[in-house]
Hints:
Layout: E1 6-12, H1 19-26, E2 34-40, H2 47-55, E3 61-65, H3 72-82, E4 87-91, E5 96-97, H4 101-109, E6 115-123, E7 130-132, E8 142-144, H5 149-156, E9 166-169, H6 170-175, H7 187-193, E10 201-212, H8 222-234, H9 242-248, H10 257-266, H11 271-278, H12 284-295, H13 298-308, H14 317-325, H15 331-339
Helix pairs in contact: 5-9, 10-12, 10-13, 11-12, 13-15, 14-15
Amino acid sequence: MTTPRLSICIATYNRGAFIGETLASILPQLTPEVELLVLDGASPDHTRNVVEGYMAAYPALRYVREPTNSGVDQDYDKAVSAARGEYCWLMTDDDLLNPGAVARVLVALDQGVDLVVCNAEVRTIDFGRVLQPRLLDAAHDRHYGVGDHAGFFEQVAPHLKFIGAVVIRRATWLARQREPYYGTLFVHVGVIFQSPPLARVQLIAEPLIVIRYGNAMWTARGFEIWMFKWPSLVWSFAGYADDSKARVSAREPWRQLSKLGAHRGLGAYSIVEYRRLLAPLGTTRTRLLPWLIAYLPAGLANSLAGLACLAMPRKSRLNLYDLSRGRHATAVSRWVAKLMGV
Length: 342
């Protein structure tokens, strides 16, 4: 069998309600040099039925069902291992590809790069409104070499919280460490930024993906992920200066009271998270304010966080969207969201 140029790899779990739209946006774009692989981590819902409904019409669609769920990191690693393509696009299971996205990536792959990073447009959960026209603020394509690794890290790593941005040479992925990053939720970031730096990287500035924002399966774990898991990963990479890492993530963002307040307003931070994650840290003096915020009425925290978004209207649209539709949303945060067109 001829080796495909590109494998679009989707690792999925329990997304029967969404994955059909994703497949419908990808399958018409496939060419003889592109395959689509869906690796299902033992979904108990109707994901299998949805995927198999497309297989008769699209032979390039492959479905692999795992007997057990191994978590998102290991499932994407399994998907790359099972892929046949020279490159693997680590696509998500509830977002959409814009028309022409696959063709655009194939052109970039002709440059012999190790990695392509795709920009994305961020929309509301129903795709009805644009929250952020470009996830990465880049007007033109960029190219990075080994000598640009610090700039690449600072400029692009924050964007790579979104795994669907990644198109990587399969041989590169398989040659690098993956297992140490199982459980981080960002195995792709670990692969990309471990040593040695990737030699040839291209960023495509045009948004090729439409993100369905607010639909992440890990939302309930948001406080632990963004206050501990993500910064711990960012600060683990050798070969990057501390000031570069700080531009990607604060080392201990949980020390910022504004972030604690915002998470309290979202309902992601409470006395439960305080006792499990913060109480073991610091001294009685440094623990006092986090303890008080954990007991702050969530509705009040939500209103205050919503008003704070007025100070940074361009940068806070995604946070405001979360605040205005979360379980502790108040009339204040909803009013601010309406005022800002969110």
